[in-house]
Amino acid sequence: MKLAQTGEALGASYRFGERVGSGAVGEVWTVTSTDGSTFAAKVLRPEHADDPSLVERFVRERSVLLGLQYSHIVTVRDMVVEGARLAIVMDYVAGGSLRDAVKGVGPLRPVDAVNVAAEVFDALAFAHSRGVTHRDIKPDNVLLARPWPECGAGDVRVSDFGIADVVGERIRQTTGLIGTPQYMPPELISQGRSGPPGDVYSTGVLLYELLAGRTPFAGPGTDFSVAYRHVSSRPPRIPVDDAVWDILDGLLSKDPAQRPTAREAASMLRRLVPRLAGAAPIARAGAPEDFDDAERSATVVRGAFTDELLTAFASTSSADHAGEAPELGEAGSATIARPLPRREVRPQAEARLEEMDAAPFWRTRKALLLAGSAALLLAAMVTGFVVLAPTGQQEAPKAGGDQVSKQLQDAALPTGLTISRDASYEPSSGEIRLTVAYAAQKAPLSGEFLEVIPGVAEGEACPAVTWDGATVSRNQASITGVDVECGWKLSGLEIPAGGSVKVTAKVSVKTADQQAIDAWLRAGSEATTAATQDPAVKGTAYPVQRLKGVEVRTPARVVTPSPLKITLVPVWAGGADELNPLYVSPASGKPSQMLAAVGGGEKGVRFSDGCGGALAVDSAGLTVTALQITPQCTVRASVGNFTELQSPSFGITSRENS
Fold this sequence. Notes:
The protein is α+β, with helices and mostly antiparallel strands.
C-alpha cells in the first residue's frame, strides 16, 4: 500500500516528491519545504500511527531527536503528526549508502574501511552520550555525502536513529525483535534486548563486511540460522593485519561487557591508519559451509526461547520445527520487526523434578556446577603459580612508554557548536598530537575560538604549541576580556552548517601515560569551558562559544502603518548585553561580526508574524511592518541555531490614537 503520493502535502511545510525507498517500518520520500529546500522524509506505516502509545512516544521523543545534531549523523529537521500519518523529516544525503559502495566495488582497502567505521563510531559515541541507541546499524543506514569513489574524510552520515528509538520501543514491549539478521548482536537474539554495546557489535559486523565483502555469519540455512550464529559461532578469520583482526575480535565479542565503547573503538581504529596506508583490499571469499562453535556462547534468558528451541530453529535439517521458527525476514540487509514465539512456562520446582528424573547425576546442573567450580579453582592455582614463579625472562618495559590516546567530546553549545578533542602520545617523537574538531548544527559558524592548552604535568608552565589548520595567537585578556592561562585564539575558521573543521596542535613532552593524557585532555576542556562561560567576562569576544541566548526586543507600542524596530540582544553568561546588539531591524550598514559568527550574517536571521496577520514581513524575512490595530502582538524570530524566539507582547495603535 502506498503511504503517500507525489505532490501531496505533508503537514503545513512540505510536499512529497519521489519515493526513494521502503522498509519494514515505512517508506522514504523526498520532500520539498515551502522555501524550496529538499529533505528526506521517512513516513511510518499506518499500523504504527494507529497505536496511541507510539504516537505519544513519537511526540515525547521529538526534542531528543531534533537535538541529536552531529556532523556524522543525518540531522532530523522535523517530526510531523498529521491524522493517521507520522513522518520524520531529515536532511537529504545525495551520495548514496555504504551498501551501494559495497555492491559496487566489493571489499574496500583496509584503510578506507577503518576510516569509515571510525566515523560511524564517532556518530554512535555522540548518540550514546545523549542516551540514544541506534539498534539497526548496517551499510544501508550509513549514508555518504558524496558517491563512494569521490567521498573522503567527514562524508559519513549515520541515519535512522529516530526510527529505532520511536518504533523499537513498541516492538520490544510486544516481545518482538527489531533488527537485521546479519547484523544482530547476540544479546538481542538470546535476551531479546540490546543497548549501546549492541551498536558496537553491529558496527563490528559492518567493518568485517567492508573488509571481506560479506558479513561474518552469512551462509547456508534459514534466516534464523544466520541470526543464531551470532550467539553460537565464532566469526571466520579473514586475511587482514593481525592488529585489525584483534580489534574486530573485540568488537564481535559475545559478551557485551568485553566490547569497547564506541568512542574507544573509534580511537583504536584511527591508531591503525598509518600501518594500513599501503594495504590492498583482500579477495572476496565465499561463506564457509561450517562455523566453529564459540568458546563462550551468549547466555539465553528463559522466557523468550529455550535452549532446545534455539538449537532446533538453528538447525538447517530440522523439518519438525520449520513451521515454528520465527520469521525474521530476509537473511540479508532487510530490517525486520517480528514477534517472538511464546512458550509455556512451568513452575521451577516441577521443571527441576523432571530434570532429575530424566538425567543421571553426572549430567545434572549441580554436578556440572561442582565440576565447573573445581576447574576454576585448578585454573586459579596454576595461574598463581605461573605469575609468582620467577622466570628470569620478563619483557623489559619499553623506553618512553607506549602510544596512548584519549578522546573527549563537549556537550553541544546553544549556538550549535560541538567541540571534540582527540589526543595521542607517540613515544618515538616525544609529542602529543591534539586534534580539535569544531562541528556546527543548523547554522554556519565562524570567527574566533578559544582553546586552552595546559601543561602536561601538574604545575607545569604553559607549553610551546605548534598549530596547523588555523591562524593562531596567544589570547590577550586586555583585548578579549577573557583572562585564562595557556589560552590560544584561533582565527579564520569557517564551519559550514552541518559540517566540521579540524585544527591540530603538537606539544613536546618528556613522557606521558594513559592517566596523564586523560587528565591533560580533560583539564584543557574544562579550562576552556570555564573561561568562555565565566559570567564576569564582558565584551563580545569568542561569541560562538560564549553566546547563551538571544532576546527579541521591540517598543511597547507601535503606530500603524510603520516599520517595527526589532533589536536582537545577545545574552552571555553574565546576562543580556544591550550595549552590543546582535542585529537591529530595519537594518542599516553591515551586520555585526557577532551575527556573522553565529548565524552566517543576515541570511541567518528571519522574522515572522506572531499575531495572526497584524504584521507584514518582507520576502527576505528581515523587515517587519505593523499593519493592523491590535492590543497585543508579538514577533517571532530565528537567529542561526536559536529558533522559536519570541518578543514580549506589544500593542499596535493608529496615528490618531497615538
